[in-house]
């Protein structure tokens, strides 16, 4: 049974988490372990996403998985045997850790049997939505956006301006070809962190990019996105792109805005970004942080 909409503080019930990728940038670790389960300090990346989704007030995590990636869903199920053992041994702290993921949010699986692109993956989630859901959030588990809270800000902007709201970061010009890039104009709001989107293009060449503001893994999309996703053709890389469905909505007059996030971002999908995320979480960790800071400083000094 899903919770009624009025119990969702930001009127977002479902967060879609595309997790069907092969994790090729992370081999050999991802030969048998889904990259979404790799730990940042001690917590799998996807549990951090679930925590952020729960903070937003969502109650359902629609996890898009590939046929051989069931382990991702298992992380959100109870584990009675392990729980019993920990209970018998009086390991309460560890028991809490085991129980945490299932208690945060209800994860439901959506299987994507062919890797046809992010747009295709998101489109599949429509089947799990209730009739009263007029918006869906998408969080890409490769992107850690810190500090959390940007989704709440995006929900506020949607409440004020309607339509769809995306999270943006500004990157160096030589980085734009890795992202969905926004064509933007100023908008008259009190806070300076919102811009109107005039167009969006997936991974353009540097010279064709309309700006250096890029999409970064957090989307609040009007339900109209599903209809748009059914109407797009394969785009960049021969895949169905979420960016192209958003661009289609814009050309049809649908309002799209970005919230420019002033914070940090880590790309967990590749070892370089993942190491940074571990260092960032590690040095801020109450237990490991103080000694890690000292050790890193010493290491850098002696290097
Ligand atoms: C995806 C999106 C892209 C976005 C990026 C953010 O690309 O297609 O528009 O900017 O995520 O991380 P991917 O990194 O999956 O190739």
UniProtKB/TrEMBL annotation:
<dbReference type="InterPro" id="IPR005835">
    <property type="entry name" value="NTP_transferase_dom"/>
</dbReference>
<dbReference type="InterPro" id="IPR005771">
    <property type="entry name" value="GalU_uridylyltTrfase_bac/arc"/>
</dbReference>
<protein>
    <recommendedName>
        <fullName>UTP--glucose-1-phosphate uridylyltransferase</fullName>
        <ecNumber>2.7.7.9</ecNumber>
    </recommendedName>
</protein>
<comment type="similarity">
    <text>Belongs to the UDPGP type 2 family.</text>
</comment>
<keyword id="KW-0548">Nucleotidyltransferase</keyword>
<feature type="domain" description="Nucleotidyl transferase">
    <location>
        <begin position="16"/>
        <end position="279"/>
    </location>
</feature>
<dbReference type="GO" id="GO:0006011">
    <property type="term" value="P:UDP-alpha-D-glucose metabolic process"/>
</dbReference>
<keyword id="KW-0808">Transferase</keyword>
<dbReference type="GO" id="GO:0003983">
    <property type="term" value="F:UTP:glucose-1-phosphate uridylyltransferase activity"/>
</dbReference>
<dbReference type="InterPro" id="IPR029044">
    <property type="entry name" value="Nucleotide-diphossugar_trans"/>
</dbReference>
<dbReference type="Pfam" id="PF00483">
    <property type="entry name" value="NTP_transferase"/>
</dbReference>
